[in-house]
Amino acid sequence: MKFGYDGADLSKLIAHYKILNEKIYIEFLDKSFIQLPYNDENIKKIEDEMISQAEYRNERMPLDDIDAYQMKLINLTTVEFCIMFGLSLLSSIDDSDFGTYFYGGGVSLVTGMILSSLLFFHESAKKNKELEKYSIYLKIKENIEKNMENPNLYNKVKARELLSINSLDNFSLKEIKQIQTNLKSIEKYQSFFEGPIIDGNEKVKRK
């Protein structure tokens, strides 16, 4: 998780954890750390909490709300460009010192507004991608766990590690969508074969 939500206590939202020297180091979104003894029970508790936090954040920040916010930014930026064009026309009509200063000041102001809007749009787009990625993962995580040993799970994905709530930030939205597609293919053809689907170059045995 890379960002929280309005009213969230960032010191309690888990960004990720690392295992080092038999210790679990948990980093929160406010960049603070705690460490716990390494064992399977603690790992499960941490990941369960991360999943719970991700589900709560996605409930608080629906994708539809983010899309609507981005559309507002696009509309605002369009208006700002129109204002700048209007100022340009006024300056061409009024070539006095006042017109020049008015145009110069107006352009600076509107340029700043446009840059701010574009920055906000960029940040909201990043959040939108993360929310969509987490939304997909939360829907397919049980199927991922069931097919973790299936060689086709990571087809067309440059898997650097096994996918989990902790490693999710290391996968792109495109890669998560590909894994979702792979799972659908696995489920579709699983019943035709004994055991997991294997590579096309290997022989398979029909029932």
Short description:
This protein is mainly α and 207 residues long. It folds into 3 domains: 14-58; 62-131; 147-207, no CATH class.
Number of domains: 3
Secondary-structure element order, as H and E? EEEHHHH
Biggest sheet, in brief? 3 strands, antiparallel
Query: What is the total tally of β strands?
Result: 3
Strand order of the largest sheet: 1-2-3
| Spans where pLDDT lies below 50 across 5 or more residues | 201-207
How much helical structure, as a percent, in the residues? 55-70%
Q: Structural class, from secondary structure content?
A: mainly alpha
Average pLDDT number: 79
SSE arrangement:
Layout: E1 14-20, E2 23-28, E3 33-37, H1 40-60, H2 63-93, H3 97-146, H4 173-190
Antiparallel strand pairs: 1-2, 2-3
Helix pairs in contact: 1-3, 2-3, 3-4
Please give a handful of descriptors for the protein shown.
207 residues; mainly alpha; 3-stranded antiparallel beta sheet; 3 strands; flat; disordered C terminus
